[in-house]
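Researcher: Re-running this chain for the archive, since the previous output was lost when a drive failed. Same request as before.
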Amino acid sequence: MGILFSYWIAYGTSHIGGTRCAPEVPYSGPLLNGKAMFDPYNDVPAGGCTGQTEASWRIPVGLQMLPALCLGIGMMWMPFSPRWLMEQGRDTEALATISRLRRKPEADPAVRFEFLEIKAEVMFTNETQAIEDASNTGSGYWTRLVGNYLALVKTWPKFKRLAVGCLVMFYQQFMGCNAIIYYAPTSKRYMQQGQGPPLTALLVFGQLGLDPTTTSLLATGVYGIVNTVSTLPAVILLDKVGRRPLLMAGALGCFASLVIVGTLIAAFGSNWPAHPVAGHVAIAFVYIYDVNFSYSWAPIGWVLPSEIFPLALRSTGISITTSCTWMSNFIIGLVSPIMLTTLAHGGTYFFFAGFSVLAFFTTVFFIPETKGRTLEEMDVAFGDSSTDKEKQRMADICRELGLPEQVFTS
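Model: Regenerated structure tokens:
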């Protein structure tokens, strides 16, 4: 573990902004446009960075510790989930937690109703699981595991949940944000050396007469700052505006920005110095694209899948959607450099713009609004109707707890 950890620390601090801080070590990776590319397995020096002070790596690593420290301290006051407490038979603590979260007394009707609503769902889930366990007596671990995954595709409502989660994760990658982050420095470095494709995605950053270091900082450092700051509005807007409006606005904003940048590259990319205004406009719309992506698909891509699955299938569903985003990320990382070197006239931008407009229409016609919906209400949003036996079981539980049956059966 020590070797693995220290290696990736050296890798991260030796390849910053597309330029290694150990320039005496030559590139030894595969050729791209006649020049060797960076190979992290051979080109990372044993001593890490050279020619810079220790602050060049201590400060970035130290800053990354602050969020983890804040999270660790904050977890001391983090209450247990009311559902988890009820699953453990700790109903009194669950009621107190709901009261604390809602900032209302335990006797408040809204608090009592939410408590009973969650209690009914937990009782229903436990009874359903007990019936399934009884019917699968003698089944092995792998049979039950496969059965959990197959349950996500047995009915259309459950498959729709899975499809929505996977599509959101898919579009999050295929709208091009990570492709820009990954390959902006490489594209600029080749351009500064007068080599490489003249029309690749972010070559516009390197055509402004800036030295390679300044160009790299502007494209990666400033881009990262814009990315971070633009994510903050989602904290406020997510529960006020809703998921669908943000997804639709973000998709349209990304589409428009990508089309504009692609058009400018197609029209002026062969001679940026003669058209400095076009270069500045292209740079501006790269950042505008980042803003639109960061307040919408970047955070919602992780929030929405965690909201849509029923309790019994949540861990299984999220495992698939998370795998989907990393598989899509792998594909983007694999094909982006090929696209950047082969698609001329802004083709890479138009490719990602196409997926942006597809993301818009998918949101309009396929993704339901989940704002303000409890897990118990999500079945209605996805049209997940229960069987007669399940309805009767839930009706019995509702009568036992004094809840109206329409809470779950409508």
